Amino acid sequence: MASGPTLDSFRDIFLSHRSTNKDFVRRLAADIESALFNGHLLRTWVDEAEIGPGQSVTGMINDGLENSRFIGFVLSPYYFESASGWTDAEWHAAVYSDPDNRRSRLLPLLAADCPYIPALLRHLKCIDLRAHHYTQGLKELLTVLRNEPVPRPTVYHGQLITTDQKIARSTLVAERAVPQSFPDLVSERLYCNLLPIEHLPSYVYSAPIANSLIKTRKDRSTALPSKEAIKAAIRSAQADNPEQARFMPAFRLFEDRLFTFHDLESPDNPLAPVIEDGEVEPLNSKDFIAEEENRKLLTSLLNMALTRHVGRLGLVIDDTKHDRFFFSEDNGGPRVIRWAPLKRMVSRTVAKPMMNGERVLFWRHLGAYLKITFLANKFYVQIAPTWVITSDGQHASGGPDIGRRVIKWTGPERNLHLLYHVRFWTSVLRNRPGGPIFVRAGDQSIEISSFPAFIQQSYGIGGDRRDLLRILDRTASSIEQDEEEKVDEAVTVGLAALDHAAGQNDEDEDDGIVLDDDEEDKAE
User: Fold this and answer.
1) Fewer CB atoms < 10 Å away: N or C end of the chain?
2) Has residue 464 got a pLDDT over 60?
């Protein structure tokens, strides 16, 4: 009959790790084993200390996994890249025994930035032990290992005055705190300005640059063509073939190869004139996530696809600011669009001339910085609403004065206003009723959630939960009106200054002052 675990074989935590992190694990194990729990020092399971000569490696690891209260995964860029497969075997076994971690036995320990974490582990909160976070992370880990309650936040009560007769910062906290202000154990949801990307294009296609475009120098070394030279070759091929669509396909160059979402093996491949046909390589896009250089390349291709999508929707692609887009005027007049925050249709003025009597001072346009970014092992579309100023309804103006004006118009906003902007831009990007956002990416597509990412908290204020989407559906028109009034008021206050500046410009013209190109750039 098999015997159960003995006191000697019992461990508090099994530290699953790659040998590349051995020094970190030795330090962590030493710190853990210096702490007391129930009258004895905590004990760790680390392979080099547990497996002796002649012992079964698999048997000892199996005993360690089964006889440890907790299993810690020491995460780093190398943890999920084990050639031997030992770390994979360890975390697979641990997850199999408790898939949803209902016994709270599985502890991800972040030793270094970890660009890839498998889907089955992503829902687990990591204990951060990186660099300067190590001390605080160790305290958090020991709290878990000792079965201690999570510490409550510090609460201040009463008037606290410092020696210089000033009110202490803690008093300001106390004055805004509810007596005994421990958070209630209720679910709380906070929205953010990120739209999760649900599905990436399946493949990134790669091929060498066509030999005909590579030049040989006098010293017999080769010179790769620039991206502009490759674009010129594509345009030339398009001009020779009137039936081919006249558009510039999105691609990136890396070393001597071209990367794109277009199927380079297709007969209709628009990049055929600039690649070597026989050496096309389809690559799984998910494989680009783990390595930083490849991830940057994939992110760049995704942003090219997003920019083309926004351009096809009719927005102006601002060539003065990266990732900024805005609505143009409507045949010389204001542009108003209809959209639905949830169910009710409302109107929003997205481009409008700002007048002083009969004179157009400038145009103000609703805009946004839209870019795809990689956060916590997932891609998102980041939305940052803004205003854009033009003199003619089409071409963006710049300069510090413009920036100050825009900042006055935006100002701090609450969660409901953030949701208002994100839902609005979601409606614009989707350009159809219901469903996710589909963005064409070469011969493939990107699927983006139409619902913003959110943070789900397990604490908050009891009885204060509100359905923000339904509230937004009722109040969107009021938010739009408040926004219009705020901008118009700011413009009214600034009219005198603008008129003065315009008068100064007129005097300069009367004096025959002419700026050369460099001076014009500085003036802008």
Assistant:
1) N
2) no
Mean pLDDT, the chain, as a whole number?
Answer: 80
Higher pLDDT, 457 or 14: 14
Q: What is the pLDDT of residues 62-105, one digit of tens each?
A: 999 999 999 999 999 889 988 888 999 999 999 998 888 888 89
Q: What are residue 101's phi and psi, to 5 degrees?
A: 55, 40
Alpha carbons 140 and 128: distance in angstroms, whole number: 9
CATH of the domain at 81: 3.40.50.10140
Q: Are 260 and 301 in contact (CB under 8 A)?
A: yes
Distance CA 24, CA 42 (A): 18
Distance CA 150, CA 143 (A): 7
- What's the distance, Cα to Cα, between the start and end of the chain in Å? 86
Residues 353 and 397 in one domain: yes
Q: Band the pLDDT of 420: cuts 50, 70, 90.
A: confident
Rounded Cα distance between 277 and 42, Å, is 62
β-bridge partners, 194 = 382
Question: Are 403 and 361 a contacting pair, CB within 8 Å?
Answer: no
- Quote the tokens at residue 181: 């202000």
Does residue 367 surpass a pLDDT of 60? yes
Structure tokens at 271: 């990049």
Question: Residue 70 belongs to what domain range?
Answer: 11-145
**Domain identity same for 109 and 233:** no
The number of C-alpha atoms within 13 Å of 166 and in the hemisphere containing its C-beta is 4
